[in-house]
Amino acid sequence: MQPEGEFGSIGRYGVPVRAIRRFSVRPVLPEPLTGLGTLVNNLRWVWHPETQDVFEAVDPQLWRSTGGDPVRLLGEVPAARLDELANDHAFLRRLELAVADLTGYVTDDRWFQAEAGSPVSSVAYFSPEFGITHVLPQYSGGLGILAGDHLKAASDLGVPLIGVGLLYRHGYFGQSLNREGWQQERYPLVDPDGLPISLLRDGDTPAGINVTLPGGRKLCAQIWVAQVGRVPLLMLDADMEDNEPAEREVTDRLYGGTTEHRMLQELLLGVGGVRAVREYCRVTGHAAPEVFHTNEGHAGFLGIERIRELAHDQRLDFDTALEVARGGTVFTTHTPVPAGIDRFPVELIQQHFSADAFGDGVPIDRILALGAEDFEGGDPGVFNMAIMGLRLAQRANGVSKLHGVVSRGMFAGLWPSFDPSDVPITSITNGVHAPTWVAREISNLTYAAADEGDSEGMFEGLDKTTDAALWETKRMLRQRFIDDTRARVRASWVNRGASEAELGWVDSILDPDVLTMGFARRVPSYKRLTLMLRDPARLKALLLHPTRPIQIVIAGKAHPADEGGKKLIQEMVRFADDPEVRHRIVFVPDYDIALAQPMYPGCDVWLNNPLRPYEACGTSGMKAALNGALNLSIRDGWWDEWYDDEFGWAIPSAEGIEDTDRRDDLEAHALYDLIEKQVAPRFYDGEVPGRWIEMLRHTIKELGPKVLATRMVRDYVQQLYVPAAHSSRRLNSTYEGARELAAWKKRVRAAWPQIRVDHVELQGLGDVPQLGTTVGIRAFVSLGELTAADIDVEAMHGRVNSEDEITDPVRVSLSLAETYEGNRHRYEGELKLDRTGPFGYTVRVLPKHDMLASPAELGLAAGPSDPEDPETPDLPAGSEF
């Protein structure tokens, strides 16, 4: 017989009693403490140390044990402590100042408001994931962290942004290791009531949206709002009683499920996201967006929904609605390889966008054409989300200069008449939100400005800090990181089945006086987690060097379906488990924001060795640099763009060698050599290594301003948002501009086959072309049914290679000189022979309209059918060239 009172949560037969529903109960704060609720409900506390200090003062021990989660803190703090604080005048004054500071932050004019004539009323920013804080686990890696930093920087700058995403009830996944070092996934339930978010309500009624599915089913979603400073983040949640069980599972987890499941998530994000924005603006009075920005192709269906709106509400035809939607849309691609793009079976798109499901205002054949791989080598059986994103956006960009080059090459098939350099995809290099990622101790030493919204001169405080103070601060941060790592490693080993009696060695892993290197990121094959293991004996020698040892902390998750990535992790874990080196190299599971924040300031060197050019940008090295770490990296992504030998070291790339094993061997040994001969000697050069500190200072002061998220968001505003808003206003005002543009494009496409460049000639070239000579160029062009106002005639000239391809061409628009019968015209201009060596030129005709964002927008170009001069002239060398 079981003793009375010992049942607990176990049933009579030992079966756990499980709740049929789970929810969190929030405390009722005493009236004097209601300001705490105000602070909790605005996520500015994530990057505002003074607000974090207020929470810590509530209960320091509880603040630490909850991992810095203010919702949990207020839910667990004893009522007696709240009553005590309600009568603590010093605390109440501190709380009052914090609330007043937040109020000023969200209402005062900032950079955007100071920009005279900024035309953007609002921007809707869509992303499948947002990494704001570990307390809100709605991210998997770099894409989400970038999106979170974009929102925070927009808030700091006062940019009127609305974030749009999904609320996943199980987030991404938590990672642990089994005894053999194999990655294990867990999916803890995310309870919205326990998060710093709130339901959007229309009066007392929760606001929501729905999307019609095949067979008359409805996919309903409620809208949760996370207030990120000045920026609202709308997150759609399908786990509600209005849905059938299958539909409730649509927002179950990030990047999980079948192909159809993934498509439904993207349908909800794109189509449902636009409807959620409309509902939010209706309920709150927020300005309706003029610009829609899709962060990767996952949200690309937003463009189809906007076309449907215009067709249904404004009775616009498809072509006119397409131009209206395109004009105000920005598409950012983060993918350096076609395999990283979402592609769905055409049949699946047909089912979900049929007239029965989506309405009859948008013809299904036009929808399918938007995502069709109708280019050489494309698959006619799939619908490509990135291609749809490019076709639905008038402006597109990659996320670093090198990635822009890669993207123009990867998507060149959409513009077959143009060289990759002419493909209309620009680049804006990513940045990181310094207040989120820079340790307070580093910030106190280096920042002259307290707010990243005021970045001019923000690092001047570094000049007042001595080398010794910088060095001691880095050592202290190294020790803090080591303490955190030891706790995580101990917990990991216990989870792997070790007993406490086996783990005495954990207390001595890592050393605060040893050169510490960090490597943390997702684990796809191209990031080459195990490159450092190519020569295990050489790596061991570096780790155990008698006078210049190194230590490495590694973290990263493989996608649950990526068996290859999991094998890489296991290989690394098995090496790190070796008792000979386990005090010098560790793998820490469950990489997330909470792990990353002490890691960046605790490292001296940030290691990155991707397979160039597959790193679109990468931002972890930026965060490390702002915390006084030097980069040791392959020149890929942002590091290719901003590398300076005072910021760290470039690992030589063996790009071009097709034998992957040989390439890995060459690059691994180059890595070992750099560590052994340059990195470690410089770190250990004296008690306070002056040359190392000099590089650290240079990195923070010179590289720091470049890698800021505020720089990135300013670039988006000035280069993409403002032009998109101009286009949106012109096309939306009466829709006549859109109708005219759509009709003009239709007319130009129909007439383009008649366009010919009949003859091209140079004047004044001479027998021996001389450097600096200016020559005349004339082109005779037949325009068929088009007019001179419809086109631009452009001469392109410059050095040519052995294939007669013009490298880095100079472009000159030619002027209309004379018109002849048969709609034939002569265009003239001048070319300056400004470089020596093989020189070539050509002429092409391009469509021209003041509403085009790029001459390549229509993908049409016409050139000479036969070169006028097959021989390219050789220019004599000049002394200054």
End-to-end distance, in Å? 99 Å
Helix content: 25-40%
* Biggest sheet overview: 10 strands, mixed
Pick out the low-confidence regions. 1-12, 449-453, 868-881
Q: Write down the Rg.
A: 30 Å
Could you state the oligomeric state of the chains shown? single chain
Quantity of strands, as a count: 30
Q: Which structural class is indicated by helix and strand composition? A: alpha/beta
Average pLDDT level: 92
Number of helices: 29
What share of the residues does DSSP label as strand, in percent?
15-25%
Keywords: Allosteric enzyme, Carbohydrate metabolism, Glycosyltransferase, Pyridoxal phosphate, Transferase
Domain DUF3417: 29-136
Enzyme class: transferase
EC number: 2.4.1.1
Please explain how this structure is put together.
With 881 residues, the protein is of the alpha/beta class. The strands form seven sheets. Strands 1, 2, 5, 8, 9, 10, 11, 12, 15 and 16 form a ten-stranded mixed β-sheet that branches. The chain has a six-stranded parallel β-sheet with strand order 19-18-17-20-21-22, with helices on both faces. Strand 3 and strand 4 form a beta hairpin. Helix 8 (142-157) packs across helix 28 (709-732) and helix 20 runs antiparallel to helix 23. The chain is globular and about 95 Å long. Keywords: Allosteric enzyme, Carbohydrate metabolism, Glycosyltransferase, Pyridoxal phosphate, Transferase.
